[in-house]
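Posting for a labmate who doesn't have an account.
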Amino acid sequence: MSWLLKKLWWFVLVLIILPVAAGSAWSYAKGWPSGWNSADWSSSHTIPDPRTDRPAMIRIYAARSGRWKGIFAVHHWIVVKRQGSLHYDRYEVVGWGRPVRLNNYAPDARWYSNPPQIVHELRGAQADALIGKVEQAVASYQWQRYGSYHVWPGPNSNTFVAHVLRSVPELGAEMLPTGIGKDFIKPGLAFANMPSGTGWQVSLWGLAGAGLSLREGLELHVLGATIGIDPDDLAVKLPALGKIGLL
């Protein structure tokens, strides 16, 4: 028993406590806006002008969450544009008012002053063929009423994007491991395909679980955080720090 407890302690220390401490130090050194009004929500100018870029597009974006939440989590959202359209549509879930929002911000806007990164992209005919399915998945999201958003363990913004990806596995998108809430499938014990559609996972309220897939690799889910190994990208996944490439 003492041997098992010692192994468990080292697991918690190396794979949870130290990554969270490192993430906290980095976030504290970087700083964050004092509130919503003082944050920068402007475009990051990372998306093509639709007036000159004609092909259809689907993008998954993510940016660090606001204030102290940014230590642990990112916020994901979905952007779509049909072939020849002159505008993008941005779908996401937020924690105030009605959860599901359309075009609240520029498609590539910063989130609480944090620059976004492109998590996944499809272009051309493949994207155009899937936009209708994405819109159907948005409409079918279960937690759309006022008060249904919960920061932790979910359902939250990452639960929403994970729902869309699971509903449209042809997207083949892998979410960032720091997307806390992505593993909240439904209350209680639940089984589902991984967001990328290339494997399966089990989850208990989004607080504990595991997943195995070709894209995400092997993941353990502890209190909403992800610990894992991703052979596809030769990377490890750690709480707060996210995916770290080994090469």
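Reply:
Got it, the structure tokens are right above this. The first strand starts at residue 57 and ends at 64.
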